[in-house]
Protein 1
Amino acid sequence: MTRTIHIRRSFRALALSAAVITVVLVSGSQWMQDRHCTRLEVSGHHQADLESIRELAMVADSAMEARIVADRVRRHPWIRWSSASCLPNRVLHLRIEERTPVLLVIDRDGAGSHFLDPAGFMMPAAGRSRFDVPLLRNFDEAYHPVRPVHSPMVRVLAQALATLDSNTERLLSEFAVTPQGLTLVTVPPQDGISRQVVLGRGDFAPSLKRFRAFWDQSVITLPTDTVVAIDLRFEGQIITGADAFLPTY
């Protein structure tokens, strides 16, 4: 009986110790988040320049709170995710994950306007690095720094592009918005001839997989000029032609 009571007391003591440790850790973490820092360090930024990040973080304030700073900098068009913690030396360490472009929108003058990421968010084209992504023409939706594009069709395309393998990506030169939906123009293979692929509307991920399979099985194995245009709008059927079906622009 005495041994049983001793075991129960030991378990209670261990449980109480664990609870105290948990409270201390949570309180310490909360204190680290709530305390004010006076200096800012940033990691993970490549396209977003440090000065614009500092402006959003409002580092001119005499004190910075981690959660508020992390929330502020998410308004930067290149920043997808951010977190911040205030270190014991009162340095606020800000960790950033930037958006990954999958499309470059081309304006009516033929210049790069802005990038789109897989979620359809827009990032300014003026950056430090160049991205080898397909172009998107005839898309006139105005640039907005903190919201995704409205077009469901373009958002579905952006999502589909993020799932492609690198070999398929290398075949894609540009897309154009047309009355029929979306049209793809391929990178010229060894024969030097770009192919036009009519994708239409809907789920583009399966259509692009069908295109890649047809490309490997038929396009590169047939004589030059046999297949110049490919229509994938009809389920279970692929229509081809030696001439383009639709104007690209």
Protein 2
Amino acid sequence: MRKKIKHSWYLFAFVAVISLFGACAEYADDIDDGRVTVPVRLSIPAFSITRAPGDPLLMSEEKPVHAYLFIAIDFNTTTTIYYRHQTLDPDKWILSEWTSTLPQSSGDVVYVYDGNFNVTLPAQRSEGRVYAIVSREPISFTEPATDTDDMVTSSFTEDDIKNLKVNFDFTDYKLLGDVYSSPAGYEYDVLGDGVKYYGTIKDISSRVPKVDLMLYHVASRVDLMWNVNVDVQSAVKLSAMRIRGLKHNDCYIFQPTMNVGDGSATHDLDVSINVGNQWYGRHCFYAIPYRVADNANSYFPVTVNLWQGTDTPATKPSGYFTHTFNISAQPVDGGGANVFGSPLLGPGSVFTPWLRGEVKITDELY
């Protein structure tokens, strides 16, 4: 019997609602040699009803406990990179409202980190840029080798930071939804003197520099829905579902839409199927998006395995139904027009996309 399956995908520009901004709390005492200690406050999304376009909200009630900062400081013709890691107290996230000069997220309800988090800028500074990451799980970097609550000089160049790749060796890959960073390709008129990287430090030459930075999801949210046609429900009762080959190694952290290939390791995700969703259901998960090849016509594949009846991956390790959705990096409407005006993945893209897919099953799977 010929298998029939229909699917459609709707893609939305994905914008997260996590923020890193200069605190309005009192600045620490300035250091006599011209250095200045600046408090930093972090914010993360709280409610989906107030989210920025494309941001689905937190994946769980747990809060990030790791913050990583790379700070590029210019002076004359030299750029020095500083690095800072801080462990955060999960009990110090407080509900607040985020206001920003950025195009997104003004008025969103967020959790603001109310703990002690300071960075010290050197006396010799003419311009600076902050690249930041927050995560629930620790993230390992090749440089610098030792995490510290103090700022240390890094051997990285600024290009090293922009092109930094990491392995997400998480105990639970659902936590990919709780990793946020500052995309290196996001630019706007931060200082009123031309378009620059949006993490450029404001008033850096003053005694009260301003860090005004908002972070965005590193992974894409994928909303997967399924629907078994009523005519075949007596024969097709889904019993198991597995999403295969999801990327977690060799991932760009500050250019999350630039990944090519599934990396040196992948993981699978099992979706719980029961009598309540054996015919109709929805599952949302986070995945690191990538293109299978480095060209404009490439795509991001999402592979789904389905079992029916009483079969499971354990009882039927082969012979299950497999379908792969190839999500275009250049989204088009039914007439072939690019509906967003810019690519979702690859050169020209900035934010990880939000994907929505529907599986319509109109015949027996096998």
Protein 3
Amino acid sequence: MRAIAAVLVFGAALVGRHHLEGMDPLLAASVAVVLGVVLSVLVSGPSARSIAAGALGALAHTWLEKIDPVLAASALLAAAHAGRAMRSDHLVRAGLVVGGALVAGATSAWVVESYVGVSWTVGGAAVGISLVLAAAPWVLRVDDPITHQLRTLARRSGPPLRKTLVRALATRRRLADEMATLPPRDVAAVDAAFQSLATLAVARLGVGPARAEALDRRIAAHAQAIGRARRVLIARRAAVSLGTPPAVSELRALTDALEVETDAYTDAERAAHRDPPPAPAPAAAPADPKSADADGTAA
């Protein structure tokens, strides 16, 4: 749904470009920045990086529009996909995402500039074609934010945490097809379980050796629970394909258990960041008998 909304926002920017020319320059720039930020957030997800990329893309669009509207639209769409491209697992794929956005933005703008205004029928068809072209960069799949975070943490960590995170990363990628058929509540539960695992991994990287072993056990247990959830999802999809009633109750029970585990492990992560209890005060040194005799003599 977010991709569809992003394509519609980009189409509105292409069609409404001529209306911005008659506005006050400051107001037109403000509207362009808002559209650029909204487009970038819809494409790459809400983050400071996507907001900055969207604002820069809007500024580049405003500057290039005076030179060539096709180049301006190309820069706007490429900037929106920059944050998404950074989540690619390969540098070549990231370049293909940005390059595809440049080409898609340019061709979409060229179609709109060439045919919009000829007639209502031709203009409507041109807008529809431009929207399809603008959606082309989504053909190249990249990691979602949670998967990207798990991959980054796996690179930063050492054994045994790295092995656990690599397995969880593989499970997350295999779950992509199964999650597309789930209701929103179940998708949110599975996402929360993976996010909790990433939160625990971040906490594990910041603790000392005394707490590391306990967190490693918790992370491994949490990853095993996610593996059980994947097996339930596979069984449910097989039941649906065979025409038998899916085990919805079993899936709901497991996702509810994952939510409980998420809360428990979040509490554990908070406890891991607390300061250790203060060391007991050293016992008072026994009085020196010689000094006591000296005090008594002096008295």
Protein 4
Amino acid sequence: MSDELEREWSIGANTAGGVVGALVGAASAPVLGPFGVAAGALAGALAEDYVTRYAEDRVRRVRSMAAAAAEEKGLTVDDLVAASLEDEHKRELLARAIQESARATEEHQIIGLARAFATGAISEDRAIVDESMVALETIGQLRGPHWRLVSILIRPSPSGESDHMNFRSGKPYALPWLRRDIIEEDPGLAPVIDSLIAKLLGLGMIEDRAHNVSDGRPRWALTGFGHACADYMRILGHNQAAS
């Protein structure tokens, strides 16, 4: 566990009662490291107002994540957190869920973090715990425009060619998308499309399916991990994430 996460957890445990109190306390410790520098740049009452509101935002987000995660598995928050204390890897998973949800500014992102955390917290399979950790870290890095692109790629391209290799293997991948088709589907992504593609590609969420094509243009589609993250986010293929 990182030094910052350890400090946040310690603050939460010492200033609030119970498991939920510890979670909320961890989220409400904003003036650490760069946060302290940011607050110090403000003056007097304005600095106090900034710190108070920032802490309140973090508390609300972590509470929302914890409640959504517990509801996902039909447990109380205390029971779900207790399950995550079973071993070192799950404790780290909990710490990461707190950190990522405290910074999440979009409701559907908090839902995705909650579902990823809940999946790992109750699993006895180390591989699933590890996958949940990677999903948490990935979801925490992405914002609305990234998910708009994912919600396009989860559907078949209107002009895409069939992926014969995956068709034979029976994998439920959608037909791949050309860059121009993505922009036609969501023109608002045009100014940032290359940045979005590069980010998702770097995270292993998408891949180029252009095999044996003459024009050399990439055909973008979600990977298995991309589909898993879309599922955590409850992306339904209707250009939005369900809340």
